[in-house]
Amino acid sequence: MSVGIRSVGRFVPDLEISNEEIVSRFDTTDEWISEKLGIHTRRVARPGQLTSDLAVGALQDACRRAGVAPETLDLVICCTGTPDHMLPAMAAAVLRKAGLFGIVGFDVNAGGCAGGVFALDVGAKYIRSGEYHRVAVVIADTVAQCLDPQDRTAHAIFGDGAGCYLLEACQDGRGIGPTLMRTKPELYYTAFTERQLPPEGLPNRFSGPNYMRMDGRGVRDFALEVVPDFAEQVVKAAGTTLDAVNLIVTHQANPTLLRTLMRELGQPESKTVIVADRLGNTSGSSVILALVDAVDSGRLRPGDDVLLVSFGSGMSYGGTVLRWCAPEDFRVERTEAA
């Protein structure tokens, strides 16, 4: 069974943090941030704005774009590394806040940024099972809320955001191609959330602050040494080539790294989509946010082949080639939104 993305939805907080605000808080400069990272602004959640709030916004946007009622969903899968609570699943919070009762939901944790492809593959497999016909895969993170107050680089890099894939069975020859996934556990500490206990100790190991830690050079080296060959494996599995795909959408680690990666792939920068320059690194949702940008700008049209590559902590990475669907490519006949 072929599975396609009927729509992609997004939600980003309205609070925008400029480089000037970062400079006012840390010993850095706008020139360094702009040149080294390529980021000019980032969106961050407001006090009291939870990951599930962003996720609900993305879910509703995806349904609106597809013209379907959220009540017609069969399954909601949430992917996050920053859930509202350790238990229950954030999917339950999303369903509750969206007023969707009688629909099953659960979470997957793909390790942050790799979720853009890993969670997509999970959702596609549920469609292929034949038991679920319309699946929402919501990827949301509020990484900017778990940064060390002294970590100037992390504050310059990360933003908060959410994206949603709305999946249905589609016509053969369209939709999601073979998906490849890999993990390099030897790079476990390249990017991770550290649980810190103060010297006096706390009641248990789940107490205390949780700070995002990232070896920037390690991430860069990984992306440039591993991703180009992996991208070749993905397009080969799909029976195509890098030159033949219409668009290349990767995790939005930072714009400077993405531009260097495109050169390593031997592809023009015009063939990719960059949103991190104004949204920051939004972890797993970044691939979806880039796809939404491509759809809204007219750069992604039915019949186009899109290479998706996500990579992040773990270090885990995944890729697939999509043949973008038209509305008439979908098979599901369900009650649509009024």
What would you note in describing this structure?
This protein has 338 residues and is α+β, with helices and mostly antiparallel strands. Helices cover 31% and strands 24% of the residues. It has ten helices and 14 strands. It has helices spanning 19-25, 30-37, 51-66, 90-97, 115-128, 152-157, 216-237, 255-264, 276-279, 286-296, and strands at 2-11, 16-18, 41-43, 75-79, 104-108, 134-141, 161-170, 175-176, 180-183, 191-195, 210-214, 247-250, 305-312, 316-323. The strands form four sheets. A five-stranded mixed sheet has the order 1-7-6-4-5, sandwiched between helices. Strands 8, 9, 12, 13 and 14 form a five-stranded mixed sheet that branches. α4 links the parallel β4 (75-79) and β5 (104-108). α3 (51-66) crosses α4 and α7 (216-237) crosses α8 (255-264). The longest helix is centred in the last third of the chain and has 22 residues, at 216-237. The chain is globular, with a radius of gyration of 19 Å. The model has no long low-confidence stretch (mean pLDDT 95).
